[in-house]
Amino acid sequence: MTRVIGGFLKGRKLSTPEGMDTRPTMDRTKEALFGSIQFDVPQSRFLDLFAGSGGIGIEAVSRGAASLDLVEKDPRAIRVIRQNLKDLGIENCSRLWTQDVEKALVLLEESHRQFDIIFMDPPYHKGFEEKIGTLVAAGSLLADSGMLIIESSAETDFMLPKMECFKVKTYKTAKFSFFRKQPEGAPMKTGVYPGSFDPVTLGHLDIIERGLKIVDKLVVGILNNSAKTPMFSLDERIRLMKTACEPYGERVEIVAFSGLLVDFLKEQDSTKVIRGLRAVTDFEYELQMAQANRSLYPEMETIFLTTRAEYAYISSTVVKDVLRNGGDVSHFVPSSTLEMLYKFRR
Questions:
Q1: Residue 270 CA from chain centroid, whole number
Q2: Domain range spanning residue 169?
Q3: Is 207 in the same domain as 163?
Q4: One of 175, 204, 237, 272 is an active-site residue; which one?
Q5: pLDDT below 70 — which residues of the chain?
Q6: Residue 204 catalytic?
Q7: Could you read off the pLDDT of 244-277 as tens digits, one per residue?
Q8: Annotated catalytic residue: which of 126, 228, 343, 346?
Q9: CB 119 within 8 A of CB 149
Q10: How many domains is the chain partitioned into structurally?
Q11: Could you tell me the CATH number of the domain that includes residue 209?
């Protein structure tokens, strides 16, 4: 049994489905969520996807939302939601859609509905955050000034096209990601992630994924340095990187370059460079390079992203050393590139 924690229904009990693998949002987490949107909820049109017991949507009504739509397909949860709405006397301002979320989104679009706040709390670790979020981003359900809020596990990262993630709130094992539409005609933010990538590693992909949260498009610049003899040819490095970046679609472009980084930035019409840092020693070198580059190109900004702890020990040098000695590099590099990697080395 859970309760409404704010608004005119504060303290009222909510039934929850028995025997279901549901994950009601905890009271402290719920309070933090509504504290972040307290001025947006009153008079809003609220859509609750993967509604479960309907607790989040009902909380929104209690705090002043003008209307509530809930989407839930499980029969046990549907019965509980209907009972909660009836017990609380808010059936008149609420509507329950009993299809799966994808079908419900289609029906809502066909009904020409729009919402100021769309909240979704899908099952963790099943990819629904990006899949359903992308459908919302591609449609017209979200009002131009509205927001999409996605609850996910704290370690889950995802990206949405045509949407700006303007805030992230993390609470122990869960986090809320807040998205809004990018304005029509807004200039695309392009970043450049340069390196030799000899070869691409899981650490590199981590930086690419997180860089895509900062920019709309990321150009991965693969350096062709004639003064060095890489293990993999330029063509091989490009093929490996393209294979690794296939999941990111058109948002990532792989381009070879030589010469000065600042000239490459100008060619890509970008002022943003993204660099990964594994240790303090990396920062000393990268800071020196960033300052030198900015003296050549004052508009340039360097964004440093620290590598996740689980990838901090991975480098292209380590991968090459292991390869030379016949070792297993499967936990260092993207699985999609592994077969190609060994083929190129033979």
A1: 22
A2: 2-181
A3: no
A4: 204
A5: 1, 19-25, 184-187, 346
A6: yes
A7: 999 888 889 999 999 999 999 999 999 999 999 9
A8: 228
A9: yes
A10: 2
A11: 3.40.50.620
